[in-house]
């Protein structure tokens, strides 16, 4: 195996060098939906903007199932890589590919069959319903592409290569922008064109990274002896993948419940939330990816038995995440209005006002979610994904409960939805820290 090990060298430099391509790559991945939102908002009107923007929460929830399975498998690959158990890792690659691929097919069938029930559950307004359905009907065809990209990206990152996934995402993001402009402005395909551009770009990234990995990384190719079920390995992969999948799904299901509550406030708040949440996600994406890179670092060193290096890595990661989070919070707070104007016509003053309020309330506390992502990554890496799930339940449970309670108070209203977010982050951070102090796992 000729890839990059995170078990030696300067910890901070190694983490940042490994994390940087992941940060850039995930920022590019967000461009899939952000570009749709920007172009739709400028050329197709607020109803189309609400439809495309609101679809983002649903798609994030659905793809989080596959992402969680891939992330859990990636932890297994990283631990095997740290232990230098390469045959065991290859057997795991085969079993996880079949398992997650099957889940992708079932998920695709389920969402097509239940599309109208899903939209009704989300309380989508009548003037948005048809547009959102048209958009989702096309977007759902990209679930298989999402699986392919995330599986092979997780595999490459597990063995220390975070550059190749970035390259394929970069190509996909650029093609998505070009196809958006072509389908929406030139071909007048409306919201369906935005979805078609995204799906074509996703398949380019998914199939491309799969073919590239098989050609350029012969050490990851499977042999006949790897193509069999080994109960012990399968159990380990399933436990990590399933709990990570549940954690990711719970996190995004909570966001989906918030989306349903937001929708009940009408098209203006719905459109404002749709835009602001894109900016929000884009803003804290660096700390999320730093948490994922930290997870790979911990998993490799956990496999190698380097407990002191893990402790040093924790100290370094906490300082770095705080710096990232506080810096981005300051920028978003100051430039909230300018960020909204990127996506929204200046004449839509109500949408802009609501979006700015959201960003200035939630965006002041990105360092809290930075710490939470480190907790998620750490507990996955040391084979305690159940704790990541507990922290997610605390964070999202608090957010959902407070959002529904506070927004029902007439003089608080929708502001209560925004304020519930950092409170949930804070409580989950405290729980993650206290558990770490009580149970040193390394």
Automatic annotation (TrEMBL):
The chain crosses the membrane at residues 56-81, 93-115, 135-156, 163-185, 264-285, 321-344, 364-382, 389-411, 417-436. Belongs to the multi antimicrobial extrusion (MATE) (TC 2.A.66.1) family. InterPro entries: MATE_fam, MATE_MdtK, MdtK-like. It comes from the Bacteria. It is found in: Cell membrane. This is Probable multidrug resistance protein NorM. GO terms for cellular component: plasma membrane. Its main location: membrane. Multidrug efflux pump. The lineage of its organism: Bacteria, Bacillati, Bacillota, Clostridia, Lachnospirales. It is a multi-pass membrane protein. GO terms for biological process: monoatomic ion transport. Keywords: Antiport, Cell membrane, Ion transport, Membrane, Transmembrane, Transmembrane helix, Transport. One of its GO terms (molecular function) is antiporter activity. NCBIfam families: matE.
